[in-house]
Amino acid sequence: MKKYDLIVGFGCSFTEGGGLDNPNVYKFINNIDDDSVGFLHPDTIKFKNENNFIVYLSQLFNCDYLNFGESMASNDLIFQKIYDYFKTTKIASKRILFIGQVTMFTRQHVYYDYAKKFIKLNRTEFSEPPFYGSPEFKPLHDYYTNYLSFIYNEDIIVSNLEKNIELYDNWITRKNIDTLWVSYDGKPSQFVESDKFIKFDGDNMGAWAEKNKLRIMDIPNCPVPDPHLNLEGHMEVANRIFNKIHSRNKIL
C-alpha cells in the first residue's frame, strides 16, 4: 500500500493546537488540580504539541510529521514559512503530504522599523500585544486601525489569497508533493471544494467547528471561552482530511 513518509503542516494556532496549552484548559480536560501548572509549563506545551490534527493525521497514515503552525500567524507569514521551507529543504525520495491552512483575513505581518523586526498584527486593542500600550508602538497601532477602517476589503483579500494558493500549490506540486488546503476563515461562498481544497459540509473550518460545537469553549463547563478546536475537533478534521485523501485515490 502506498503511504506517506512525512506530513508537513503549515497554518496558525488552529493547526498548531492553540488553546490546548492554556493551563486552565489543560487542567480541566485532564482533570488535574495543580496550582504549579501555569502558562508555558512543559506539560501544557507537550499536550498542545501532541494533540492537533497534524499529529492525528500522521497517526492515521502511520508516518512522521512536522507541524509549522504558529500562533497569531497571518496569511503572508504562513506563505513566507511555506516558501522558506520548500526553497531550502531537499525533498529527496520522500513521499510528502503538504497541508496548508490559511487564517483570518484581517491579520498582518509587517516590519516595524522602530523595533527592527517583523510584528504580528492580530488585534486592535492598544493595551494588548503587540502594542502593550507603549507610546513607541502607537504609530503601528494607528497604521493597523487605519488599514482595517479604510483599506481592508475582504473580497480583494480573498481573491489575492486564492491566487496565492494556486501559485504555491503549483510550485509545491511540481516537487512531486501531494497538497491539500483548508481555510479557517471565510463565508461558505468563499473558496471552492476541490481535490486540492477541503471544505467541511460546505463551510470553512471555523464556521463548521462553531456549528458542530467542536471548539474548546463548547466543552461543557469549560472555564475558558476559547474558540480553538477541542480534541474532538482536531480528530474530526484529521479524519476528514484522511478520507479526502483516500477519495482522491492517492492511497491505493
CATH secondary-structure class of the largest domain? Alpha Beta
**Beta-strand level of the residues, as a percent range?**
5-15%
- Oligomeric state of shown chains: single chain
The second-level CATH architecture of the largest domain is 3-Layer(aba) Sandwich
Keywords:
252 residues, alpha/beta, 2 domains, two-stranded antiparallel ribbon
Task: Characterise this structure.
This protein starts with 5 loop residues before the first strand and ends in a 5-residue tail after the last helix. It contains nine helices and six strands. Helix 4 crosses helix 9. The strands form two sheets. Strands 2-1-3-6 form a four-stranded parallel β-sheet, with helices on both faces. Strands 4-5 form a two-stranded antiparallel sheet. The protein folds into two domains: 6-106 and 162-247, 3-Layer(aba) Sandwich (Rossmann fold), CATH 3.40.50; 108-151, no CATH class. The longest helix has 20 residues, at 154-173. The protein is globular, with a radius of gyration of 19 Å. By secondary structure, it is of the alpha/beta class. The chain has helices at 13-16, 23-30, 42-50, 53-61, 75-88, 138-151, 154-173, 205-211, 231-247, and strands spanning 6-10, 64-67, 96-102, 108-112, 117-121, 178-183.
